[in-house]
Specification:
Layout: E1 2-5, E2 14-17, E3 28-37, H1 39-46, E4 48-50, E5 56-58, E6 74-81, E7 95-98, H2 108-111, E8 135-138, E9 144-145, H3 152-170, E10 181-184, H4 188-199, E11 205-209, H5 212-221, E12 225-228, H6 234-242, E13 246-251, H7 256-264, E14 266-274, H8 286-291, E15 295-298, H9 304-315, E16 324-328, H10 332-340, E17 347-351
Parallel strand pairs: 10-11, 10-13, 11-12, 13-14, 14-15, 16-17
Antiparallel strand pairs: 1-2, 3-6, 3-8, 3-17, 4-5, 6-7, 7-9
Helix pairs in contact: 3-4, 3-9
């Protein structure tokens, strides 16, 4: 199979030949048709994460091996499967969304379909080859979801940005439709979050980002209010905009500065859900945590049950799309660099053929 892979960190992706996997056991082999380009791919390409005072975490120390075909937002056509996958309704040529956040497949978390919480994560596109390739190997049929009537390029984004925001939103619900939910970041995740909230009937959606372009995209997607964080004194201006402290902030950037103003904006009993991997750390006054009964909670992608629920929401016709730019798979490196430069609105989705 051909792959557009990280061969050396911080160097251009290279087109290479890899052995096409032969499925065994419960595995399913798909031919890739669509692959989303996610901001998390940049961390893999860079080879490290910023852990604030704990320094850098090298992905090589986590077991990430090069060369690696990234890509964890994948749609493909079923080609073949192992003998243990028989009887699961598979047919050659079926189009399926790939759930990428797979684990060991054996522990209690995996068997409860909470694969993303497995302590031995083996995510597709991170620990094994993903969608920046002509083929992808999936551990089990349950990791495949039928997109139905959803545009396949949009459906690919549901495997990461979609379930990531859907899972984060579930952590702050239920809230009254006119209670402000603040979304920090109006990139691919932020626009997807606006779409999901609108589909769930929420009306007061406040988007915070830097610059007019991202905020215009947020308003176009359906945000009721926007705030430019480049103008300083973000907490005060956010409280003024929302009419006081807020019950829910979902930080899709999650850097030192965003986490600080997000925490400071919380109302009594409010919840900050941290999603992004920008880097840094948050120091909080512990008595305030108790006196205000606030919650700071991390949210890591989502699970197969949430992906199926999100796809059902999309198939209902209530879930608006996000801006999609289609590029050929061979343009994977230039697409990644455009994302790195902040020149992408919504999502780039790589397509085969």
């Amino acid at each position: 199979m051909r792959a557009w892979a990280v061969v050396e960190t911080r160097k251009p992706l290279q087109e290479i030949e890899l052995p096409t996997p032969e499925p065994t056991g419960s595995q399913v082999l798909l031919e890739v048709t669509h692959a989303g380009v996610c901001h998390s791919d940049l961390h893999i390409w860079e080879g490290e994460y910023d852990l604030g005072s704990r320094g850098k975490m090298l992905l090589s120390d986590r077991g990430v091996k090069l060369p690696l075909a990234m890509g964890h937002e994948t749609v493909g056509r079923v080609l073949k499967w192992g003998p243990d996958a028989e009887g699961h309704g598979l047919a050659v040529g079926q189009t399926r969304i790939v759930f990428p956040w797979v684990g060991c497949g054996r522990c209690a978390r995996c068997r409860a379909e909470e694969d993303n919480m497995c302590a031995q994560g083996r995510a597709i596109g991170i620990f094994q080859h993903g969608g920046y390739a002509t083929h992808v190997l999936v551990p089990e049929p349950r990791h495949l979801v039928d997109p139905g009537n959803i545009d396949h390029a949009l459906a690919a984004t549901y495997a990461c940005s979609g379930i990531t925001v859907y899972s984060a939103i579930n952590k702050v619900m239920p809230l009254a439709p006119d209670e402000a939910i603040v979304l920090v970041g109006a990139g691919g995740l932020g626009l997807q979050a606006i779409s999901v909230l609108k589909a769930l009937g929420h009306r007061r959606i406040v988007s915070v980002d830097l610059g007019a372009g991202k905020l215009a995209a947020a308003r176009e997607a359906g945000a009721s209010d926007t705030l430019d964080a480049s103008m300083g004194d973000v907490t005060r201006r956010l409280l003024d905009l929302c009419g006081g402290p807020v019950m829910a902030v979902i930080d899709l950037v999650n850097g030192t500065e965003t986490a600080r103003f997000a925490f400071d904006a919380l109302a009594k009993g409010g919840r900050l859900v941290q999603v992004g991997l920008f880097g840094g750390e948050l120091t909080v006054p512990l008595p305030v945590m108790a006196m205000k009964a606030v919650t700071v909670q991390g949210s890591y992608v989502g699970n197969p049950k949430e992906l199926r629920a999100l796809v059902a929401l999309g198939q209902s016709g209530r879930l608006p799309g996000i801006p999609i730019t289609r590029e050929p798979l061979a343009a994977a490196d230039s697409a990644l660099q455009r994302l790195r430069a902040g020149k992408v609105t919504g999502r780039i989705v790589l397509t085969a053929g």
